[in-house]
Design a protein that fits this description.
The complex is a heterodimer.
Chain A lengths: L5 H24 L14 H11 L2 H18 L3 H24 L4 H23 L9 H25 L8
Chain B lengths: L1 H4 L6 H23 L7 E6 L2 E7 L4 E8 L6 E9 L2 E7 L5 H4 L9 E4 L4 E6 L12
Antiparallel strand pairs in B: 1-2, 1-7, 3-4, 4-5, 6-7
Classes of the chains: A mainly alpha, B alpha+beta.
Chain lengths: 170, 136
């Protein structure tokens, strides 16, 4: 890509959004056999992280937001969107903080993102059912957020290093 | 510029934070695993945060739990079955049916949750068994 302008950025974001939605779709095909609602591989975060490092915060946030809302429409569960949004927004803020302000490594950023995404969803769920017993799941969600965050972080790193020519890292 | 972005090498602070998080995860998992060994005595059901009923685990029972679904305010029913000392959600009017897929519970602190219908089923211990209040 020789020249980067609003047009190419918009096209790139559109493509990333499509990829993120594909990731969401793939996740619906893999029912994780855990007795806890809301455990996901977080594959879409792969795209969000890549966008964050290659295009910037606003762009990555747009992809994340659009992905969450659209996947609610597309994959039939509008109800879950509010939980995903809570997790997604918290996760994004945490990742941004760790990346821009505290200058942590991408692996750490992704791990923190994974953990906070799950915790965000859990907190909102506990508020909605007005019952703190849900926090019984916190340990499982914390661990899965950490593990999936680590894997996604490592993969993202490889992708970003190779896509570097798009315009350098941010 | 790349050192600013922290893509290549892990710094000390990364190792510190990651170890901290792994430690926290291990501690939480240990608490989860060892903290839920006590066999329960009562099944407590709440809907929208309010107590729906408490039932003894040792009595086999079928409990229809009525609630108003989040989607359109219509009445929804979750079917909870207590048998052989454990409680399991066998059927539910909800979009994701995650509550049905959750395994049967029998230890203190374990829960089955139906988020769309805001139903929470918990196992409580002997002390709570003093009052057998079945509201529904």
């Amino acid at each position: 890509m020789r020249q980067r302008n609003k047009g190419t950025t918009a096209a790139l974001l559109g493509m990333m959004l499509a990829l993120a939605l594909l990731c969401s779709y793939i996740e619906t095909l893999l029912p994780l056999p855990l007795p806890v609602p809301g455990i996901k591989i977080g594959l879409a975060n792969l795209v969000v992280l890549t966008a964050l490092y290659l295009l910037g915060a606003k762009e990555a946030f747009a992809v994340s937001l659009a992905r969450i809302i659209l996947s609610g429409f597309l994959f039939g569960n509008m109800f879950a969107v509010v939980y995903s949004l809570a997790g997604g927004i918290l996760s994004f803020c945490v990742m941004l903080l760790l990346k821009q302000v505290w200058k942590y490594h991408i692996l750490t950023v992704s791990v923190a993102g994974g953990i906070s995404h799950n915790l965000g969803q859990l907190l909102v769920a506990a508020l909605v059912v007005e019952n703190a017993n849900l926090l019984y799941y916190m340990s499982v969600l914390f661990f899965s957020g950490l593990a999936t965050g680590a894997v996604i972080g490592l993969i993202s790193r490889e992708v970003i290093l190779r896509l570097n020519e798009i315009g350098g890292t941010k | 510029m790349e050192d600013r972005i922290q893509l290549r090498k892990l710094n000390k602070k990364d190792v510190v934070l990651l170890l901290l998080l792994v430690g926290a995860a291990a501690a939480l998992l240990a608490w989860f695993w060892f903290g839920h060994q006590e066999k329960g005595a009562m099944v407590e059901v709440t809907v929208d945060g309010e107590l729906y009923g408490t039932y003894p685990l040792k009595e086999n029972r079928e409990i229809p739990i009525t609630s108003q679904t989040s989607r359109n305010g219509k009445e929804a029913v979750n079917y909870l079955v207590i048998s052989d000392g454990s409680a399991d959600m066998v059927q539910a009017d909800c979009p994701d049916k995650l509550c049905v897929r959750q395994a049967a519970i029998s230890h203190v602190g374990e829960t089955i949750i139906c988020l769309p219908n805001r139903v929470v089923v918990t196992i409580t211990g002997e002390e709570a068994a003093l009052t057998d209040t079945t509201i529904h």
